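Ticket opened by: R.M.
Priority: normal
Category: complex prediction / small molecule

The reporter submitted a protein together with magnesium ion and asked that the result be attached to this ticket for the collaborator who will pick it up next week. Submitted input follows.
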Amino acid sequence: MKNIPWVVKPIVPEEVYTDREEFLEYFYKAALEAAHRRTMSTVLLGQRRMGKTEIFKRVVNRLFFEQDPKSPDSVVPVYFSFPDTIENKKDFALKYLENFMRYYLAFYTNQPDIITGNTKGEKLINLAKEIRPFFPFKKTLDLAIEWHDDIVKDYSVIPHQDALEVPRRISDLNDSTIVMFLDEFQNTRLPQYNFDIVGFMQEAVESPTCPHFVTGSAMSILAREIIGRGSLFGRFHGHDIKSLSGYWGTELAHKSACYYKIEVPETMAPVLSEKCGGNPFYINAVVHQAAELGQPVSNEKALNKILAVDITSGFIWGELNDQVTKWISRINEYNITKWILYLSALDENTEEENRGRLNIERIQQELLKREGKNVPLDTIRDVLIKLSRGDLLEYLELGGWFRRVKDPILLEFLKVWGRIEVEGHNHNLVQYDLESRYGKALKRFHEYKGYLAEVHMSQILISAQKKTLSGHYFNSEKDIEMPWRFIFVKNRMRLESGKGREIDVIAASGSEIWVCQSKWVTGKKIGIAPLKDLISQAEIVKKDLDPEKIQMWIFAHDGLTKQAQAFAEKHGIFWSKRQEFDELLEHLGLRKLPDL
Ligand SMILES: Nc1ncnc2c1ncn2[C@@H]1O[C@H](COP(=O)(O)OP(=O)(O)OP(=O)(O)O)[C@@H](O)[C@H]1O
Ligand SMILES: [Mg+2]
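Result attached by the on-call engineer:
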């Protein structure tokens, strides 16, 4: 494993870590900008296992090792993760304050061991006193030692408030900069914390000398209950993190395959990423499982089988089972809760108007049928709200309705879990069922090479935002100004009027929509028919989304026939053959198409 210096150890090996550049840069720069008082407290919000914690840790390490602590513009990074069990206010206060002191001392004296060695209590204070003569801010160091003493000796009336405010007070007094990276922030809402944290954070987070960056694993609690209302409302800038793009998910599948030493062919990597919904944890889990089974991911069938094994008994099972069990054990009415969660995963609302909306009455009927219990609708609703706090389903608060999570693997897991844990079916049988169902599942992808190129096309659009591209890549006379920002870039999207037809790639900015098609055909040039097809797709887009401008683009591996070239020019269709496409990828710093 490659060695990168750290004060808080990341979990993902360097060889596997993929992308997330945008977030690493964003937080790194935002932290440095705090020295110029231009940074606001920020919350990083996203579904489970998207890599939020990894981002925080990596940024903290970079800030620690890549700055000169003697520079007046240097920024002290501090990482803290709110534990989910806590004894009392005093313990918490000491934990929080000592953690801060470790980073404070370590950063200015260039001694990472103070953090990694987890020096605590009296030892830490003695160390601070020893360091004092060499420390740039003696007065505030004395104060920190004094505040610590006050908490230890119970002189502090509200110890946790004092501890939470220390970083800000110190940076204010020194006119220095400290950036707090707080993880698992939702834990402050747990009943175990029978004292208020959030209320006392208001002062702390509003400081330009000490912005607080927070994240956590329960997005709904963070967004809705902590940041979205009450004393912290409006005090945070929000930043969202989503799944990896198809391109980066594909890269991760390759890196992971290399790390675990198992074969994932070029054409299967994008399929693997897609089936995992671009979730980095799932992608790693499936590749790791393939290695455990000694089963290369040679085709879609093999992939389905590995996925089925992992969901029913592998890494995904372990992780999600843990998550679900932890969460529902906190809710009273344990048995009903289990049933409601299971039934909510089964409830497929296909009525046109209510697509995706959970049907609470139907859940009630099922409960009666299966458990023989007549549970009032209000109780069901109440349980659903509690489940939504754990991100196990979505609660649309304003409309007062619920829907299933948009995480295909979690949904599949919940169905399997319900059969085993709720209905009491035999684990092996359920595993067998899923494996054979997945084995028989229809191929979702008909053209693997085409899909691979699609994934590259969408990444080109994402990476080219705000740029001007030479027309040469697209066989266009003029250079091309790419939109400033695409609101979405999607593969295989179906639009309402399209009668179920999929558009290979569609990318929409406020005024301009790109409609793209991928034809990985070798040995012959593409004729007019696919271009006509592309035009009819663009017409569907026009009808449904009514953009100011539509741009069509086709990837044709071996190019277009003479006739098709004339047709493309007449209709303003951009086209790229393999060579231009590869050049464009290189120009944008992306990997060229593989040789298949
Ligand atoms: N950029 C990445 N490259 C490769 N793997 C990643 C990446 N980010 C995350 N992972 C994988 O996902 C796992 C979860 O990452 P992490 O703990 O940072 O996610 P999280 O968003 O903090 O999750 P939670 O919501 O549970 O707190 C990692 O252990 C790793 O397997
Ligand atoms: Mg996390």
